[in-house]
Specification:
There is one protein chain. This protein has 270 residues and is an alpha/beta fold. The chain has a single domain, classed as Rossmann fold (3-Layer(aba) Sandwich). 38% of the residues lie in helices and 22% in strands. Strands 1, 2, 3, 4, 5, 6, 7 and 8 form an 8-stranded mixed beta sheet that branches. This is Hypp4769 protein.
């Protein structure tokens, strides 16, 4: 399913251009947890579902080697083409078959993708590749927030109450929409952190481009090929009217907050 949703070349380009970047602060939080039971240097990290590479890059300052994998070949082609980091490599591979040796990885990280996986197979693979004391970190975001309550209401309505409401895959509903609270993990004792967010200032057209990358919208387009972007045009109109601004829509910026939910769990050392 994930390969089908994210395999188009145009989608990879939109993803790379408009998806907000994960921060250095987020990487520091994950690495700090890894270091609690692992002395430096940190050798190997694997970023699962790396997309066009934005998430893999934030690990580069902390590990000698970072491998980003994704089932989408266009995403990996784009990530490789834009890669300027000597210690980061990318490969096409599924989450359930990580192309590294047994017991070789200090961190397996997965951002906004773990909900798509076969969790039984993925968790077994995580256990295979992690060193004793190694860490699995998974995180996601759901439902943007804005300082203006009306913009938040319009965004939530677009996602779950409008024509797109039936286009949410059952795995999104079960795992992502519940903020991974019922996500199967390979070990007990998971640490949950909800203290961070991705904050970004976007023009309304940039925000609309961001929405064009999400899987429920891509599914809506598949079911409604005659829509020709009308759903997103209506969203843009509603957001612009709600701001009450007279600035051109291309210049008006909105502050968008994406709350992060992070789960980290450690492989037993014995």
């Amino acid at each position: 399913m994930s390969a089908h949703l994210f395999s188009e070349a145009d989608h990879a380009e939109l993803y790379q251009k408009y998806r907000p970047k994960w921060s250095a602060e987020f990487a520091e939080r994950v690495v700090t947890f890894v270091k609690e039971k692992k002395s430096s240097p940190l050798l190997h990290a694997v970023d699962i579902g790396c997309g066009s590479g934005q998430s893999s890059e934030i690990l580069a300052p902390h590990f000698q080697h970072v491998l980003g994998i994704d089932v989408s070949e266009p995403q990996i082609v784009l990530a490789t083409a834009n890669n300027k980091l000597g210690n980061v490599k990318y490969r096409v591979a599924p989450a359930e078959s990580i192309p590294v040796p047994d017991g070789s990885v200090d961190l397996v990280m997965c951002l906004e993708a773990v909900h798509w996986f076969d969790h039984e197979k993925f968790n077994a693979e995580v256990d295979r590749v992690l060193v004793p004391g190694g860490v699995l970190a998974v995180a996601g975001t759901i439902y943007e927030k804005f300082p203006q309550d009306e913009l938040t209401r319009i965004s939530h309505q677009f996602h779950r109450e409008g024509p797109m409401k039936d286009c949410w895959h059952e795995k999104l509903v079960k795992y992502l929409c519940t903020e991974y609270r019922n996500l199967p993990m390979p070990y007990g004792g998971a640490v949950r952190d909800e203290s961070m967010s991705i904050d970004v200032d976007l023009t309304i057209p940039q925000y609309i481009k961001l929405q064009s990358t999400i899987s429920p919208y891509r599914e809506f387009c598949r079911r409604n090929p005659g829509d020709k972007g009308a759903l997103l045009q209506n969203l843009q109109k509603s957001l612009y009217e709600a701001t009450g601004s007279t600035q051109p829509v291309e210049e008006l910026k909105m502050h968008v907050i994406l709350p992060i939910f992070l789960l980290m769990v450690r492989k037993p050392q014995v």
